[in-house]
Amino acid sequence: MVSATIEVRNKSGLHMRPASELSRIARQCRSNIIIRSGEKLVNPKSILVLMSAAIKKGTVVTVECSGETEEQDLETILHAIASGLGEGVDETA
Amino acid sequence: MNIWNDGKIASEGYASGPAFIVQRDERPACTDKIREEEIEEEILRFDQAVETGVEQLRKLLEETQSLPVGQAGNADIFAGHLEILTDCTLYEEVTGRIRRDLENVQMALQLSADHFAAAFEAMDDAYMRERADDVRDVERRLMLILQGVEETAFHTLRETSVVVAADLTPSDTVRMNMDLVAGIITEKGGVTGHVGIIARNSGIPSLVCVGPILSKIRNREQVLLDAERGSIITSPDRETQEKFCRNAAAYRDLCKKAKENADLPCITVDGRKLSVCANAGSPEEAEQAAAYSVDGIGLFRSEFLYMRQRRFPTEEEQFEAYRSAVRSMGGREVTIRTLDIGGDKGLDYFQLPKEENPFLGCRAIRICLKRPDIFKTQLRAILRASAFGRVRIMFPMIAWVEELEKALEILNVCKKELREEGKLFDEGVETGIMIETPAAVILAQELASRVDFFSIGTNDLTQYMLAADRGNPEVAPLYNPFHPAVLRSIHHVIRAGHERHIPVGMCGELAGNIEAARLLLGLGLDEFSMSAPSTPRIKQELRAANYGEAVGAAAEALKSPYTILG
């Protein structure tokens, strides 16, 4: 298993649109992926679970990937979150 | 000919045409349990329904992307629905209920959707709570597919029509050819709901929350929709039709003129300057009001914050809503009325004792003084919002000087707390009261020396002064704000206010009544506050009036023991 932490910097947190984008990307990954946000364990492949977690701007999350392509998948997820999931990031944060 | 006057105006204007009735045949979910050997077959049904749903949504998404920018926001909604539809957790939830609990697919779907919708509804964030509607929309789509019900045949909308529906979802509105929609009428829904937003964005007149009407209108029956005054007429006679056309034409002219004159201040021909404000029931309505170049929000009803949810709103939630209203008005004043529940307005989560006469019972300020915890949360939120513009605080239903003093005392405690916490607010925030009880009229002088402004609430004042329930059709003819006792009360209150050099406004229906404008001007009213769509007309009327003449005419009118108008 590989993991890394990252701050969610979307202006509106993981609302419908960015959550939709993240779950689409996560589903293209073959690894098992878990996002830890505080106490919560979130499966990013499910938009319902992802939105229910109500992850806000400024939250630091841990992304964990396990499976044959874990290195590559972790990279993909981190890159997606860092780039703001199609929404752009708030530079003033 | 049938007439309805119950709807709420979601988007103003006039529309006429044949009715296009949106029928929905969705049935309740089948409750039968299945046998174990039927499990795989039931799951296959779900798979197929999802597949059909995906096809429908992909098509919708394509159609949406070719729409004008105003409605392009829907593309995001459908992309989200597509994700929910194919969501792995939803799939596990539904198939789990089929396998484990032997639920049939319809029931499994309904229970699963309930589960996710409830999770969203429990969230703090208003945006996330509304996502429960997306889950419901997806559920409805799958349910219709599972029940073999065709989606509403919007492609049969071929001529300009007035669309009549129980409610409309985003999926519906995107499939209607908006060029052929003259007006929209819905039984349910609120002004700030989806239909209202789409209607306003597209400039389509619309009445929502009309109540049961579908069963009383035939498809293609002629409908007149007056979304300026809020009425619907079916199969009109010639006279009604002609009157409607005249009103519609006058409205069009007025809009044109009002637009040209929107930014002009409201000054009578002989130089008296008046303030014309809008009443608003939510931050969205405040934002709309700003487009009418009003002088401020004369009545910001705070009840929506309490009625929208299942618990008391937090200080933060209220603060956000007030601040948003204050910001949308720029530096113009926003008068926020503290909680006015009781009477005909209840809250599901706050059991008021059952009362014989709720309008004479525990309502508005009376509840707030009994529950200072609820009151303080609101006052703190309003005070904090005052740091972002010009806020005035207004207490409703005052009948005793003691009530006002107690309310002001609690307000001072809140100010002190905020100062200690280092939170910002406007130290000069003005406070005032609504004059709506006969007691407040008679004590107007004493009350005036304790506040910065008055606002006369004519709806309640009329019913209390005349002892005539405004909701009771039996006494409807007795409920008349032009009754000399009401007019003399208004005059008395205005004089008492002016003796103490405080401005007197009015935020009841009477303030937006074109017939009353010159009379109220003559009585000396300083501020007129009404629904935003009525402001251009009233401004026009006041600009054309002569204050000196109006004073003379009002003095004459006050002498009469008979009702002069109305």
TrEMBL record, chain A:
<dbReference type="InterPro" id="IPR035895">
    <property type="entry name" value="HPr-like_sf"/>
</dbReference>
<protein>
    <recommendedName>
        <fullName>Phosphocarrier protein HPr</fullName>
    </recommendedName>
</protein>
<keyword id="KW-0762">Sugar transport</keyword>
<dbReference type="InterPro" id="IPR000032">
    <property type="entry name" value="HPr-like"/>
</dbReference>
<keyword id="KW-0813">Transport</keyword>
<feature type="domain" description="HPr">
    <location>
        <begin position="1"/>
        <end position="88"/>
    </location>
</feature>
<dbReference type="InterPro" id="IPR050399">
    <property type="entry name" value="HPr"/>
</dbReference>
<comment type="function">
    <text>General (non sugar-specific) component of the phosphoenolpyruvate-dependent sugar phosphotransferase system (sugar PTS). This major carbohydrate active-transport system catalyzes the phosphorylation of incoming sugar substrates concomitantly with their translocation across the cell membrane. The phosphoryl group from phosphoenolpyruvate (PEP) is transferred to the phosphoryl carrier protein HPr by enzyme I. Phospho-HPr then transfers it to the PTS EIIA domain.</text>
</comment>
<dbReference type="Pfam" id="PF00381">
    <property type="entry name" value="PTS-HPr"/>
</dbReference>
From TrEMBL, chain B:
<dbReference type="Pfam" id="PF02896">
    <property type="entry name" value="PEP-utilizers_C"/>
</dbReference>
<keyword id="KW-0762">Sugar transport</keyword>
<feature type="binding site">
    <location>
        <position position="436"/>
    </location>
    <ligand>
        <name>Mg(2+)</name>
    </ligand>
</feature>
<dbReference type="InterPro" id="IPR024692">
    <property type="entry name" value="PTS_EI"/>
</dbReference>
<feature type="active site" description="Tele-phosphohistidine intermediate">
    <location>
        <position position="194"/>
    </location>
</feature>
<feature type="binding site">
    <location>
        <position position="337"/>
    </location>
    <ligand>
        <name>phosphoenolpyruvate</name>
    </ligand>
</feature>
<keyword id="KW-0479">Metal-binding</keyword>
<comment type="function">
    <text>General (non sugar-specific) component of the phosphoenolpyruvate-dependent sugar phosphotransferase system (sugar PTS). This major carbohydrate active-transport system catalyzes the phosphorylation of incoming sugar substrates concomitantly with their translocation across the cell membrane. Enzyme I transfers the phosphoryl group from phosphoenolpyruvate (PEP) to the phosphoryl carrier protein (HPr).</text>
</comment>
<dbReference type="InterPro" id="IPR006318">
    <property type="entry name" value="PTS_EI-like"/>
</dbReference>
<feature type="binding site">
    <location>
        <position position="301"/>
    </location>
    <ligand>
        <name>phosphoenolpyruvate</name>
    </ligand>
</feature>
<protein>
    <recommendedName>
        <fullName>Phosphoenolpyruvate-protein phosphotransferase</fullName>
        <ecNumber>2.7.3.9</ecNumber>
    </recommendedName>
</protein>
<keyword id="KW-0808">Transferase</keyword>
<feature type="binding site">
    <location>
        <begin position="459"/>
        <end position="460"/>
    </location>
    <ligand>
        <name>phosphoenolpyruvate</name>
    </ligand>
</feature>
<feature type="active site" description="Proton donor">
    <location>
        <position position="507"/>
    </location>
</feature>
<keyword id="KW-0460">Magnesium</keyword>
<keyword id="KW-0418">Kinase</keyword>
<dbReference type="InterPro" id="IPR036637">
    <property type="entry name" value="Phosphohistidine_dom_sf"/>
</dbReference>
<dbReference type="GO" id="GO:0016301">
    <property type="term" value="F:kinase activity"/>
</dbReference>
<dbReference type="GO" id="GO:0009401">
    <property type="term" value="P:phosphoenolpyruvate-dependent sugar phosphotransferase system"/>
</dbReference>
<feature type="domain" description="PEP-utilising enzyme C-terminal">
    <location>
        <begin position="258"/>
        <end position="546"/>
    </location>
</feature>
<dbReference type="InterPro" id="IPR015813">
    <property type="entry name" value="Pyrv/PenolPyrv_kinase-like_dom"/>
</dbReference>
<dbReference type="GO" id="GO:0005737">
    <property type="term" value="C:cytoplasm"/>
</dbReference>
